[in-house]
Amino acid sequence: MQIRVEHLTKRYGDSLALQDVNLTVEDGELFFLLGPSGCGKTTLLRTIAGFETPSQGEIYLGGLPQKEIPPARRNAAMVFQGYALWPHLTVRENVSFGLEMKGISRKEREERVNRTLRELQILELAERKPNQLSGGQQQRVALARTLVIQPGVLLLDEPLANLDAKLRRDMRQEIRRICKENHLTGIYVTHDRAEALSMADRLAVLRKGTLEQVGTPREVYRRPRTPFVAEFIGETNLREATLREFRKDGALLDTPLGPLFSQCLPPDATVGMKLTLSLRPEAFRLLPPQDPPQENSFAVTLKRAEYLGEICQYEVLDATGSTLRFDQLNPGDDGLAPGQPLRLVLSPQDVVSMKP
Ligand code: ATP
């Protein structure tokens, strides 16, 4: 079921939680909302669910305006961070509760509850109470309770926040599988960028109540449109630059690291324009010392190395004395010594330039 948000503004007194948000989440799509604390993620979810009233704008579910429709009658269900399971009811009773409220017959209730418990692999826990379950199992019950209602739209507010790191990783693909198999349209709020990048069809980065960028995980990570998005979605080095001249398939930029050729430019870039570069730590390659300097290479001095097995994280000083971070995957037998001069090189596609 398509979700459409049009010109949505939400005010709490003088403070603006959402400012003219426009967003369409397509039928069957799993969409993620990312952003720093207080940027409006939960408010957007709660407004779609009907728990908050828009100050301006309209929400459409399946093309129908929701203004007059109370939360209980919206074709949307929300899964909360704290699960909110009934402590005195068994797993089965917790999952069945919503169907009883909807007046579904006993026979159909039993069938649907059993099917959902089986799908979430918690059928064998059906007669337990929530306090006899692990965090991950409680999370599954919370999800089962929502899925059993077969909502058109699933709204997830940090559903994995209370789980340990391993369980979070295991649950990621499982939630995605369940959403896809049931053809659910979902909006998922998280602070965890790995969760968003690995699970989302598309995602939005919110900042102070506005959508700063919407795109696929790859688009947003590889082609951030603003320095804020570049830093929020991953590690990066930001540098100022000026566009010197256009060349075939890109432009030459003057930067503190020396001239760099970029194939990722803002659409309206012009000669002389001030830009901000985002250079991801994993985008640099180390040039062997005997190799001649090549395009997009520059000299640095090693400041600090942190060996982590599969990766080595370096801090180096560039020609201006600023610190630059770069990562080397699969570092070899010999470490590099602090103070050592090095040459790094970047592919033109990894020289990402944006308006400041
Ligand atoms: P977090 O990641 O910390 O959960 P969030 O991105 O979900 O944050 P919201 O909870 O949507 O942010 O809050 C957005 C803004 O609206 C914040 O400045 C918050 O203080 C404010 N806000 C939220 N709910 C209310 C309320 N009921 N009354 C007044 N202000 C509120």
Key terms:
single chain; 356 residues; alpha+beta; six-stranded mixed sheet; five-stranded antiparallel sheet; 8 helices; elongated; binds adenosine-5'-triphosphate
Q: Name the overall outline.
A: elongated
> Largest sheet, order of strands side by side?
6-7-8-3-9-10
Number of helices: 8
Distance between the termini: 38 Å
Mean pLDDT, to the nearest integer, reads 91
Cα Rg: 25 Å
Largest sheet properties:
6 strands, mixed
Bound molecules: adenosine-5'-triphosphate
**Strand count:** 20
Which regions have little confidence, pLDDT < 50, spanning 5+ residues? none
| Element-by-element helix/strand order | EEEHEEEHHHEHEHEEHHEEEEEEEEEE
How helix-rich are the residues, as a percent range? 10-25%
